[in-house]
Amino acid sequence: MSFNTDISSKLESSRNTLRKIARNDNTEFSKQSILNDMEKFVKMVNTMDETVLVPSRLMNLPQEGDDDPFSLFAMLNDLKTELLWAGDVEDHGDRARRVSDLSDTESDASSAAGDSGIEGEDERESAARAAASCRRHLQGLRHSLRQLTAAAAHLTRSYQEEVGAPV
Predict the structure, then answer these.
(1) pTM of the prediction?
(2) How many Å apart are CA 73 and CA 2, to the nearest integer?
């Protein structure tokens, strides 16, 4: 029973931490944390939104590579919305989320917990492989978020230079 109690308390602690993050209760993260990179990305895109008052003026900016500044602006805003709302957005203006179908999620979770996919495989080996895969994906996500944050900062500076605003 102590094992179940320990897991329950850890789950509740994790839920409380996620609630604080969602409410933005001044939770601090390690500089290397994925949450820190996510927060920086969201803040930079918000700054970009506040700076770019007339998005159509982005069409006058010189195009760098294949991406035009207006498309980059739209893509960064879409990614921010998807990151914050997991793609479950009915009305982007209200940021209202649709109710998810919990039965699908629960059945996926129970299937994954009971079947490792390889017959006779030890659950610890399966969990270790899943953890290694998760770490690899988190590293890639951190790298991508940092690049996207830099792109939003560059676009913001370029817009400010174009309209003659102080940089």
Answers:
(1) 0.62
(2) 51
